[in-house]
Each structure stands twice: as C-alpha cells, then as structure tokens.
Amino acid sequence: MKTIYSDIIQFxxxxxxxxxxxxxRLKDSLSVKNREDQWKVRKPRFSIKEAEAKEAMTRFAxxxxxxxxxxxxxxxxxxxxxxxxxxxxxxxxxxxGCSIMTGEDYLIRNYDYHPKTYEGRxxxxxxxxxxxxxxxxxxxxxxxxxxMNEKGLAVGYNFMNRKNPGDGFICCMIxxxxxxxxxxxxxxxxxxxxxxxxxxxxYVVYDRSGETxxxxxxxxxxxxxxxxxCTNHFEVMRHENRNHLADSxxxxxxxxxxxxxxMSAREAFRLLNDTDKGVFSDLYGSWAGxxxxxxxxxxxxxxxxxxxxxxxxxxxxxxxxxxxxxIETNRIIGEVNTDIAFLHMDENANWFRK
Length: 354
What we know:
This protein is an alpha+beta fold. The chain contains ten helices and 17 strands. It has helices at residues 15-26, 30-41, 50-60, 62-75, 79-87, 171-181, 185-194, 246-258, 265-273, 318-322, and strands at residues 2-13, 99-103, 106-113, 121-127, 134-139, 143-144, 146-149, 154-161, 200-206, 212-218, 221-226, 229-230, 282-283, 288-297, 302-307, 314-317, 331-336. The protein is globular.
C-alpha cells in the first residue's frame, strides 16, 4: 500500500489573486517538473490560439481567465504555456473509469484515473469579484474533477471515449465552468449544451431539488437524460460508445441493483468506497484505479472526501466555511494499492518508466 495525500487549499479573494497564489505554490513543485517531463514523451496533438481560448473562456466564466493571468504573473511563463498546462481548452485526454450515483440529498463519485496525473489539491475558493464559491478537488489547477458550489449545485463527470476530438474544453474545465457560473441543474444542462466539447463525456449534475441529469456529450452532439447512476458508456448516444463496455456495464449493474432499496448517503458512500463491493477499482496501471471518493450533500452543504478505499471520509462543512470559518487541517491522507508514482509527491512521475 502507498500512502498518498492531498493538500487543502483555501482562498477568498479575486480570481487574479487566487491564480497568483496558486502560481507561487506551484513554482518548482514536483507537479510542474513532472508534467514538463511528461510533455517530452506525450507531444500535444493540438494547437493553442490565445485569442480563441480567451474568447471561449470569457464567454462562460470570465473570472477563470483572470485566474490564468494570475498564474502567468506568478510563474512568469508565456501565456501559451499557461494555457497548455492550465487552460483546459483544446487539450488531449486519455481513457479513465469513474462511477457516480445520486440519492436523497447526495451525489457520490469515484474518481478513477492514473496516479501520474493526480495533483493532490483539494480546494475551497470564495471569489470576491464574480462567480460562485466552490469546494472540490482540482485537476490541472484551474479545473475541477467534481465539486459543489455555494448554491448547492454538485457536478461530476465520466469518461466515454476520445474518438474524433473537436475544438473545445476538456472535462475538468467544463466541471469548473458549470460550478463557477450555474446555480442549479437546469442552468448547468443549458450551459453544457452551449459549451464546445473536446472529447466525449457524461456530466452528471445534481442540486437541492433532488433532480439528477446525465448530459451525454461529444464534439458532435449533446443528449440529456434523467438517472441516478452513471458509469462509462452512453445510453442515448450509443453510436459514440467504445467497443469494450463490460466493466462499465458491470459497475452500473452493481449500483442499480443496490438502488432497488433506499440508501442513505453513508450506505452509498460505502458501496463506492469499499474495495469488496464491486465498484471500487484498483486498475491504476490501466488508467482506471479509484484514487478518491467524493460525496456532496447540497441540503446540508457538506462535502465528504477520502483518498483510497475502505476509508472513513473526512467531512467538510461548506456552509460554515462560506461564513468565514476556515478548515483547520492542511492535508488529507489516504492509501492506495499501487506502487505507481503520483504527479504531486514523487520524483520521476513521468512516462519514461512504469
């Protein structure tokens, strides 16, 4: 077993200042060094046009562009490099897993991916200029893997495929855009329909109303359906699915079978986080191992989080944090069953070695 951690980052202020603070933390970090090495092997299959990226970003959430400017100021990088690392527009993405289920006042999500991409940052951000306050783990610094905002909107996403990518945003930036700008599921659904999509994902949105929508997206179309469980295949846009769906179907079946009886948030969390229940995955070398389990309870305005399986979640009271009470701990600790290096905490978390 490998001990891993996520740093807790708390900030209240403008987007520019938030970006600047993060940039100062990132300077000379293992995340930056390892990602720089990773680019030496994984050549980008895209081009970046600053004006086009800025126009796309500011259309939906202009504060995030200010955050990128703050990162640039702190890191003293060319804007093209900032956008390549943190912009979330026209960036490649690789396969992953992930499972999401919802119930009475909860959305619970397993984040399944590769350790060498995990940056170990759990963020609390309350902007003073524009946009909603957000709690949740970050990806590529500005993006969010999952999260909840001050209005009680919770968001998670599941990978579908990388076939025929288009010009547009990647999943973690779309997660951030939704949380930054949308107050409820209907606003989120409408925004997903408008956003240009780089790859094919399903975005699951949930709020205090108890409604859950799974928005199936690809560069070629968007479809919306209601559901309380989602894994890694489309149910409407089936022509977009990958060929190998057995594990996705199996995990979905496990969750739906258990949902035949009412489940509390704690029971649902255990279903996803316990390693013997059939949803948690240890396929880290195949880009599909469960790194964290998140839960969001919009009516209570609380978030649960654990790193690795068979863990009791740490519980954050987001409502109290919004009122000014900071989280006292600085780090979340967990364990995963792998010896693969993690981007944020290990030397040589690159693609030169396994």
